[in-house]
Design a protein that fits this description.
Elements: E1 9-20, E2 23-34, E3 38-42, H1 49-56, E4 64-69, E5 72-73, H2 78-87, E6 88-91, H3 103-114, H4 119-132, H5 148-160, E7 166-170, H6 178-193, E8 197-201, H7 205-211, E9 214-219, E10 222-227, H8 229-234, H9 239-249
Parallel strand pairs: 3-8, 3-9, 6-7, 7-8
Antiparallel strand pairs: 1-2, 1-4, 4-5, 9-10
Helix pairs in contact: 3-4, 3-5, 4-5, 5-6
Length: about 250
């Protein structure tokens, strides 16, 4: 376990409140993620996990509290939103690749249009990250020619092409069949080993145990428990956490 005590905060969330109409989906969330830290968020469906990470790059708007990413507070200011989105990569359950563009074209689009990178440099960067996720040999193909696991690895590479300071993953393996889950998790493990700041919402508890610096358990819009993976899995403190783990592991 690396020492993060001296590291600056990459993401700071203070008193975050979010409603959908009368439904109080996030109830005063406080969370600080340090540079290079790897956080896994677990919890039942409807607990607010995905909403929380979607608030971090303003795909969802919060009504109260603060979100500060790399020193920039997320408000309605469009400039700030653009800055944060260019520094924070995000991978969803769906791959959101453009079907009419090749894999390489999908990867170079944002660096060229957002960062003003030249096509040649963007292609070099894209091939580097496609190599990193072990899919460079598919660069000229189109998304529908790839398996789900391959498409998700392309989606990860596409995010990395922006050279983000942090990556958010929203259940990146939940739409995949069992054979392809491992290849995506292996890609994420390699990213973690490179020191990427990561927040990952996932049901893959083996991944959480292997990669996370902290596991956070959410229920009904609250952080119920947070701890190291060892303590979280082997000695959970809260009854709700114990119930959740017993349902997953069957004991």
């Amino acid at each position: 376990m690396k020492d993060l005590s001296q590291e600056a905060a990459a993401i700071q969330i203070v008193g975050l409140q979010k409603w959908y109409g009368n439904f109080h989906v996030l109830r005063g969330i406080d969370l600080t993620v340090k540079q290079g830290e790897r956080i896994v968020i677990a919890g039942p469906s409807g607990s607010g996990k995905s909403t929380l990470i979607r608030c971090i790059n303003r795909l969802e708007t919060h009504q109260e509290g603060q979100i500060i990413v790399d020193g920039i507070e997320l408000t309605a200011d469009v400039k700030n939103i653009s800055k944060v989105r260019s520094e924070v990569g995000m991978c969803f359950q769906q791959f959101n690749l453009f079907p009419h563009m090749s894999i390489l074209e999908n990867c170079i689009l944002a660096p060229m249009s957002v960062r003003g990178t030249s096509r040649r440099e963007a292609e070099e960067i894209a091939l580097h990250f496609l190599e990193k996720v072990r899919i460079a040999d598919q660069a000229t193909k189109y998304p529908d020619q790839l398996s789900g696991g391959q498409q998700q690895r392309v989606a990860i590479a596409r995010s990395l092409c922006m050279k983000p300071r942090a990556m958010l993953f929203d259940e990146p393996t939940s739409a995949l069949d069992p054979e392809t889950i491992k290849e995506v998790l292996d890609t994420m493990i390699a990213l973690a080993e490179d020191g990427m700041t990561m927040i990952c919402v996932t049901h893959e508890m083996g991944f959480a145990r292997q990669v996370a610096d902290r596991v956070i358990f959410m229920d009904k819009g609250l952080i119920v428990e947070e701890n190291t993976p060892e303590a979280f899995f082997d000695a959970p403190q809260h009854d709700r956490t114990k119930l959740f783990l017993s349902q997953i592991f069957g004991h």
